[in-house]
Amino acid sequence: MPTRLMFTLLSVICAGALSADFVGTVKLTVTGTDGKPLEGVKVAAEADPLWGRASQEEFEKYNKDYGPFPKVEASGEFTTDQTGDVRLNVTVKLSGEGRLPQQTVRQGNQWIKSDYVMVKLTLSKDGYRTYRPSTTVTEVGSDDDNKWRMALRRISSFKAQLVHKADRKPVANAKVLVDGKRDFSGIRSAADLQEVMTDAQGMLTLNDEQCPVQYMKLRMLEDDLAFAPDCVAWNNMQLRDGANDGGTLEVVPGGAIRVHPVHADTGADVSVDCYVFSADPNSKFTAPLGYVAGEFTVKGVPAGSHKLNMTPVHDSKLWPVAIEPVIVEAGKVAELGKVKIEPHHTIEVFAVSDQGAGVQQYQVEAMHLSGFKPARYPSHGGNPEQWTVTASCSPEQNKVQPLARGRWRVTVTALGFSPGSVEIDVPAAEPIFVKLEQGGQLQASLDTNVFGWGRLRALIAISANAPALKELNGRSGTEVLEMIRTVDSTGVFVKDDRHFMAVNGFDALPPGTYTVFGYIDDQQSLRADNVEIKKGEVTQLVLTNSSAKLTARVANQGKPLAQEMMYLVPARGWNGGEAPRTLNGKTDAQGVVVFNDVPAGNCELLTSRQYDWINSGSNGRAGSSRSLPRGVAIQVKVGYGDRVEVEVDTHQSRYVWVSVKLKAAKGATISDVKLVNLHDHMGLLGISPVASGNLYQFGLLPKRSAYELSAAVTADGRRECRFLRLLEITQLLEQQFEFDVALGKLEVKVKAPKGFKNEEVTVYLEQPHDMAWASWERPGFGGSADAKGSITFANVPEGPYRVVAWAAKSRDSFVYVTSEIIELKGTKKVSLKFDERVGELHIKFEDFNFAQEKSVRIELMDGDTPAVMGRPTTLYRQASNVTLSAVAKGTYTLRITAIGFEPYIQQNVEIDTLRTTSLNVTLKKMCSVSVQLEGANADGLEDSTTDIQFLDAAGAAIALGEIDVRRTFEVVNWNERSVMRFQHVPANCATIRVVAEGYKNLEIEVKPQPDKQYETKATLVRE
Asked: What phi, psi does 287 have (nearest 5°)?
């Protein structure tokens, strides 16, 4: 209730003679809990004998301190109309000895003091709870009174029928525990637990006093029954004012759990907060018992497997306990007996140097290896897989806590010493002493002649004897930084600062020989081999721009390929765009070729069969002589000072040599030719070719990829637009495309819509193919119509177009018209008529990382055809918000597909005139499956695969929308093993069927899991 309605201690009290009788006014508004005014509320006033105090004792003390107060009689009645406003005149009569208190009230722009009395109001209305607040009535009226508002609650009730889930028969005369709050004061109190009995028809009825407003949970108190695990009775049923219909609540066979929590050391009873959870993560079943002590029984638990959690409530130095599984049988009690509640343990740790002296400052990390695992871990300590407790210690403050009973590994680190560790059992009766050996220091810096004032971002030192060295051999510092936590890191030391702070080196390393990586950014990692660290000495290391070494092992179907010429070609030129320098060499008898002094950057390793022509041109990149592209091209990322080893198998190329011939019409020139990979590299810059006359050679490109070819076409000395076509790279070896870039003319006639002049209409041409949006630029042909609504576009490259016209004075007056797809050849005339009934669709993607995922295909369909719009309705996008503008009024179906996600379909999307329809879209992640292939060699399987199907448990094919799943899998071969990886597997898939030429159909049984890569094996058999 409003603060204004309560008597306040801050009132100004002044002594004086007994005042005369007076009539005061109470003004307020009465509403329901929905905030709407209530009509027909009776409001009556009477004197408050306690003057707003909560009890007679409080009033007597208050009267003694500030009184005495006179005796007061007060009366008055009022009934609200449809406005809910109250203007209650209260007649006040005073008698006996005493004085009235005063308070400051506002009248107009003045504040004055006025005598007042406390009265009790009674607000009543049929069907509502009676409300009796106290308020003040002043002798001088206050302008603030009419701001008061009081809300009345409806009388509440709840009814639900309990039935057996198996036969739907009523559960008669059964006890039910009601867990909920009945508190209108706003002060939270303990849960009010009530026992209620169902009637003969299984009806559970709660009246106003029993019915908690807001939330309620129910639990069966019978020995053999429980609410079904998916019943809403477990999960905070929301109750509102008035009558609440709980519908039908299903009951299943159930039992009970009896448990007695005791202290593990003393055996004394422990007070705990107890919860019982279902083992099924999709179940709503959670039975909280609240605070209990000693032996207790949890009734009404569904039969099945459960988990019981107990958290100590009065002792913060006890660990919570989880018991799983707890098997409950129908009509029986699962006896858990006495469950020991483990206490926190403390150990004392001292660090001692190898010279026998104590170490003054040291850090201790204790890692839990085995033993008791609490149900929950402290906020500062680890996770269930690797629980650690850390502390900063000295000989005076050497305690490490809290630990649990079990086996722990204690690791101590200190400045100038190598880390030392021991394994102990907790509780430990004696202090722990850990011996630390003095190490050598390593101080590393960058060569300022090469890197200026650059700073190291991370420093990695790997001992020559470390088990991890073999795993990391040949890796760049960038890769090492990502891998070190996934291998046996004994002998691997890392200083990692991802905020670009200076990294000076290591305070202490065990004496020995190391390989040191210095990591600067994503493209630069430096390396130094055979770095000697000596005990007690400081080793200074300057990391400079050292070149890398690349070793390639070349084979054909696993057999070494000798005397094969190999070329190492930069992807975009080395060393910041300098002229590319090609390295080459022949393989030896074992198929090995070594490239020394390799500059850092991205490059391709290729066979001579692909690059016989490489040095025949004047610039080292182009020539007139070359053979067909056999073998493979491998992309290699080389960091500064790396030692990189790669394996190349020249069998079954996955790359195609692509070239394009463009024949320009007379008077036109072609420039800026490029390809954009629409499936694999959305958003990247286009691939530029090597040009020779009208032939544009793009070199090796991945098979089964879709590209957009674009070229700038200039006529009459002025660039007009881009020539666009789709290229599908399908066949092996070599693929050449030819296009005639002829020029045509388009004459457009359009009449301005109502409210516009013809000159206010903008017309432009648009390439209509589905994927044009991926590299969509401002149209090359566009402009305003003349006064007659005409506009002509000359020197237009022939091909498919759509003509779009639009006019807009503001957002609310946007109209458009678009033509059907036309094939321009020679001269063509088009007339357009506006449709002003258009709206807009705004799509927001929730929880989707466009920076990491592939492009998203968005389709707005009117039946089986795309929606009519001024721009393409089939889009490939990489943005979290997408707006489809100027959609014709109607009802559509929205389809969204993305690699690695389930198809999204939203039907009945309404588009209304001059309105924006907004949709929030959440794409559900699909699963990934990794299959290790056994049997036949899998070389060429990826290219020969003609079909992939995902089948459900019934053997039916699962529809995947517009995604070609052959683009979503790959075959990886290494060390005579082949692994097939799928990235687009539905969660309900039971079998993956792969159809490939030259092989028997491969059917793989799987059980994919969301957010985890499912791994299995399968046997590949050749036909």
From this structure: -110, 95
Strand 643-649 and strand 548-556: the pairing is parallel
- Which residues have CB under 8 Å from 827's CB, separation 6+? 744, 745, 746, 747
The amino acid present at 1000, given as its one-letter code, is K
3-state DSSP percent of the chain in helix, strand and coil, to 5? 5, 55, 40
The amino acid at residue 245 is D
Six token digits for residue 775: 């590299």
Give tens-digit pLDDT for 146-203: 568 889 988 999 999 999 999 999 999 999 998 876 654 444 344 467 889 999 999 9
Instruction: Look up tokens 């950014």; give the residue.
Output: 521
Q: What's the pLDDT score for residue 937?
A: 74
Indicate the burial class of 68 (C-beta count within 10 angstroms; 0-12, 13-18, 19 or more): exposed
Residue 731 near residue 757, CB atoms below 8 Å: no
SS (H, E, C) 298-365: EEEEECEEEEEEEEECCCCCECCEEEEEEEECCCCEEEEEEEEECECEEEEEEEEECCCCECCCEEEE
Chain Cα centroid distance, residue 598:
40
pLDDT tens readout for residues 879-928:
567 777 778 888 999 988 877 788 888 999 998 887 889 998 888 888 88
Which letter, b or e, does each residue of 349-387 get, where b requires 16 or more Cβ atoms within 10 Å of its Cβ?
bbbbbeeeeebeebebbbbbeeebebbebeeebeeeeeb
How many other β-carbons are positioned within 10 Å of the β-carbon of residue 896? 25
Tokens 């010279």 label which residue? 355
End-to-end C-alpha distance for the chain, whole angstroms: 84
CA 578 to chain centre: 42
Give, for 827, the enclosing helix (H) or strand (E).
Answer: strand 827-832
Residue with tokens 């013809």: 758
Q: Which amino acid, 117?
A: V
Structure tokens that stand for 422 in this block: 């021991």
Tokens at residue 496, please?
């990692």
- Stretch (H or E) spanning 1019: strand 1013-1020
What's the rounded Cα separation, in Å, for the pair 778 and 324? Answer: 63
pTM of the model: 0.47
Positive or negative: CA dihedral 926, 930, 931, 937: positive
Contact 90, 26 (CB under 8 A): yes
Provide the b/e sequence for 962-982 (b: ≥16 CB within 10 Å).
Answer: ebebebbbebebeeeebbbeb
pLDDT tens profile 95-104? 888 888 888 8
